[in-house]
Design goal:
Layout: E1 3-8, E2 24-25, E3 28-29, H1 30-42, E4 46-48, H2 51-54, E5 61-62, H3 71-81, E6 86-91, H4 99-108, E7 116-121, E8 124-125, E9 129-133, H5 137-145, H6 151-155, E10 160-163, H7 177-184
Parallel strand pairs: 1-4, 1-6, 4-5, 7-10
Antiparallel strand pairs: 2-3, 6-9, 7-8, 7-9
Helix pairs in contact: 1-4, 3-5
Length: about 190
């Protein structure tokens, strides 16, 4: 298997005030909705988060190896458990993401020698909607050991192929109740 899909559901959701992955969305939860899209694009999907909390969503759930360190530790968990060369990792708070956009990223892995394939969104690279090669693991583990948890900074240490031309609406993420309300009204 060349690709494995993962959705990060283990965040604190502190700005949202409640768990983003469990927010109601299109007749399901936001976590299930994004996981279905990742599975459609990649052929497989697992969640990274608390198995007791997210086991009811209907997907395999793996506990974050280093909880409390943010998304970087979820990506490390995915790269540690994957049987694949490449791991598609998407945050659970991106309801605008499409299987087509994810397939474009996955297609780039066949033609790159880079360690990461990430879309270029309106605010720069999108590390929480990217495909990571297993060779990224040592760089990410080193960053964590040094207390550097921001993926936007760590992404600069990886050889990264940036993909342009994907609708920026795909990368809107829901961080606050206001974000959720505004996106729900679309």
């Amino acid at each position: 298997m060349r690709h494995t899909g993962f959705v990060l559901v283990g965040g604190n959701s502190s700005r949202m005030g409640r768990d983003k992955a469990l927010l109601p969305w299109n007749g399901t939860t936001l976590g299930q909705y994004v996981a279905d899209i990742v599975r459609d694009a990649c052929g497989s999907v697992s969640l990274v988060g608390d198995p007791a909390r997210f086991g009811s969503l209907g997907f395999p759930v793996y506990a974050d190896r280093l909880p409390g360190h943010g998304p970087i530790s979820g990506i490390v968990t995915a790269l540690t458990i994957t049987p694949s060369e490449w791991s598609l990792v998407v945050g659970c708070d991106m309801p605008g993401i499409t299987a087509g956009a994810l397939r474009l990223l996955l297609e780039e892995t066949a033609v790159t020698k880079d360690q990461c394939v990430a879309p270029l969104g309106p605010a720069g690279s999108e590390p929480l909607c990217a495909v990571y090669h297993r060779t990224c693991l040592p760089v990410l583990e080193k960053a964590i050991s040094e207390g550097r948890f921001k993926m936007t900074g760590v992404l600069k240490e990886l050889s990264t192929r940036l993909v342009t031309g994907i609708d920026p609406g795909c990368f809107a993420n829901l961080n606050t109740p206001e974000d959720f309300e505004a996106f729900s009204e679309r």
